[in-house]
Amino acid sequence: MVMAGVSVVDTEPRGLRERLDPEILAKLKPVTLSGEQVLDVPELLKPLFPWGGLQRGWSVGVEGCGGWSLSMAMLGEALGAEGWLAVVGVPSFNVAAAAGFGVRLDRMLVVEDPGPGRWATVIATLCESVDVVAFAPGMRVGVRDQRRLTARAREQGTVLVHLDGGATWPSAIDLTLSVNTLRWDGIGDGHGHLKRRLVSVSAAGRRTGAAGAPVEMWLPDARGALGAATSIEATVEPAIESTVETAVQSTVDPAASPRSAGARHTHSKTPASPTPVTW
Amino acid sequence: MAVVWCPDWPVVAWGIPLDEPAVVVVANRVIACSPAARAEGVSVGLRRRDAQGRCPDVAVLDRDVDRESRLFEPLAIALEALTPHVEIRGPGLLGFPTRGPSRFFGGDEAMADETLAVVLPVLANRGSCRVGVADGAFTARLAARSERAIDGPRIVDPGESAAFLAGLPIAELQSAQTPTADLIDVLGRLGLSTLGAFAALNPADVVGRFGQEGQIAHRLARGEDEHPPDLRRPAPDLAVTWAFEPAADRIDRCAFAAKALADELHASLSSNGLACVRVGIEAETESGEQHLRLWRHDGALSAAALAERARWQLDGWLHLTRMMRQSARERPETADLRGTAPGGSDGLRGTSPGGSNRHDDWTQEIPDDIGVGAGIARLTLIPDEVVPASGRQLGFWGGRAERADDVTRAVGRLQGLLGPEAVTVPEWRGGRGPGEQIALIPAAAVDLGEERVATARQWIDEPWPGSVPQPAPAMVLADPIPLTIIDAAGGVVGVTGRGEITANPARVSGLNGPTAQAIHRQAGSKRGSRSVTAWAGPWPADERWWDVMSHRRRARMQLTLDDGSAHLVVIEDGEWWLEATYD
Hints:
- The structure holds 2 protein chains of 2 kinds.
- In chain A, helix 6 (about 120-125) runs parallel beside helix 7 (about 145-155).
- Chain A has helices at about 1-10, 15-20, 20-30, 65-80, 95-100, 120-125, 145-155, 230-240, 250, 260-270; strands at about 40, 55, 60-65, 85-90, 110, 130-135, 160, 175-185, 190-205, 215-220, 225-230.
- Among the domains of chain A are: about 35-180, 3-Layer(aba) Sandwich (Rossmann fold); about 230-265, no CATH class.
- In chain A, the strands form 2 sheets. Chain A has a 9-stranded mixed sheet with strand order 5-4-6-7-3-8-9-10-11, sandwiched between helices. In chain A, strands 1-2 form a two-stranded antiparallel ribbon.
- The radius of gyration of chain A is 23 Å and the shape is globular.
- In chain A, helix 5 (about 95-100) links the parallel strand 4 (about 85-90) and strand 5 (about 110).
- Chain A has 10 helices and 11 strands.
- The longest helix of chain A is centred in the middle third of the chain and has 14 residues, at about 145-155.
- By secondary structure, chain A is α/β, with parallel strands linked by helices.
- By secondary structure, chain B is of the alpha+beta class.
- Chain B is built from 16 helices and 20 strands.
- Chain B has a 9-stranded mixed sheet with strand order 8-7-1-6-5-11-10-12-9, with helices on both faces. A 6-stranded antiparallel beta barrel of chain B has the order 15-16-17-18-19-20.
- The relative contact order of chain B is 0.08.
- The chains are: A alpha/beta, B alpha+beta.
- Chains A and B meet through helix 4, helix 5, strand 5, helix 6 and strand 8 of A and helix 15, strand 13, strand 15, helix 16 and strand 17 of B.
């Protein structure tokens, strides 16, 4: 097989090249620059990343209300079917929510309590074999640990995800994604339940150039995953939401045909979540 | 070819008496069990939990290959009384060519009986031993495994190998290295249930369909050797040597040298397009004695495998030296006897097959071989048999093919650092509360390379009425935070026995920040007050009312606050707690 392949390349390289899919050709290049070693992120988040994806070896932080959900949505796509995730020292990280965003449970390690002194050693060890380590150190990280972990992550191509937004990191991290919650849908004044949330996400950090425009999206959407926010939904809804405390709300809600033609449609398509029993 | 096989060697090496149930597990699967455990229904390949279920008082041991090889060395030394060409095929299994010894003892039967007579005293009732003799190593091994080998040596007469193998199931090919489980599976599904049926096929057809792997399997099934007889003897200059200065008597120094030598040997072989299937490990002690042991591997030996075998072998020799020093201290009169016959003066014992003296225990075995104080001065690795290297194909796109192995290794290191329970893997569980749907299992208890059913969402297909509706909160507090929820008039909000809220919640105090990070960092602090923008619930859950100890009567409510955050709060015994945050 190998011999045959070599001879084809030798005799008619040009013809072979033309027949090959450009995507495969790109992969065949012998050298990959560091900027090309990126993990895919969901289409909606791509404008926020300088290389259009999560670059291996980077430190990425999430901050703001909704940051953890954003990290889960990002990793669900980035890890794919084969990538391994380790969560270190964050006992409140809800694995069930991560699974909703597509993170695979059989590719996940959880170290709930790495102990005070061995926190950095644990992450350094994990860097050698997993693709992404998510963590939130409870205390300020020393400069030595930071340098060691950054170097190790670079070398191994591991992405470090700071669930605390890098607040405890002694130096600036490569990319910080800030989430701003605009509103929640589905919950009223004593009725309904939380269904979806409109957020705007912006990126900043020493690796990005000028900060791009914030991107609005549903996090999570009615399916529990990441969803695109159409301009109508994003603009019309806040006006209604602002009246939520008033008595008008009850009359607006059934008559809200213009705003949520799309939204209601989506709701009816998804299977109704089990109605809680009452006592 | 004669094969000496010690069944259950991993258990025997641990020094467990045969009448006590014990199993050795690797990655949660039983790889060896003692006869007592087998009598209780434990078998190889069982999960650890199942084995413990069948035999509750079974001792569960980890595999210790170093120990297995170290303790196997005395058997090889004992067999050197019969032949100099003992080759170790792995801990618990060795073989030697029979032509010379059989002629000396007067036939295969007598030679096999003599083999047992030499080996059994060394084992000293610690374990059992079986001998099989046949034309080829594969057949001899199967002969040793057969039922009839329990009572005495099983001898397959010359030329009878094919007939002996014909009736055996095709799955016996597993005991050889080359045919993979896939090939054996395919053969079985083709209707070739016995080795005889496979051997009856035309060799050309087999090669055409299954390639080299099929050819080797077919040779084995026909009772021929794994390798064709035209093996080249490699040029002697391929051997690599390491001189210790000063002589080494510690295994760590030896292991370091062995690693370097193995890498060097492997590099020089592969640059010649060769791979080694049998390696000779030769050590020269300070006093000039030479010890040689052959190790065979059915597949080609990688650099790591070469280094491992050299380390095992040196460890075996050094261990015997240590034991002998000990016994010399304990029994001075024996040491005197040894003094009269200086160790090593007669060279390799195995050169005189008749000079077999019986040994009563393991310690008396030693003095002839490595003298007191003999460190290893020179180590040589000799590629004794080589085959053309067929190479190993790595992932073409640079993918890491053995990721699960990598991760398992990292987990092992972390367990050494933090304790066996510290590294966990998540699995689905049924439950109503957000924190009850995931269970964390110690990673040591699962095989990371295998598919685990409980990691798929579909694993929980029963409905859980009263569970909190989707989506799941991103953050479930390990320690819930106490809250105060008041209505517009300042009264405390409660939930009635009918599951209705007493007043609309207006403000929440006890939360200190809008984001999960703030909650995470300042859990427990009781500052800050936020107004409620929307709420839903309460959803009561009266769980486990049949059990006094685990009965919990709670009601949950979702709140969104004026800073945009959303939370799941729970009331129990009249007190509100923050259970989870939709971060």
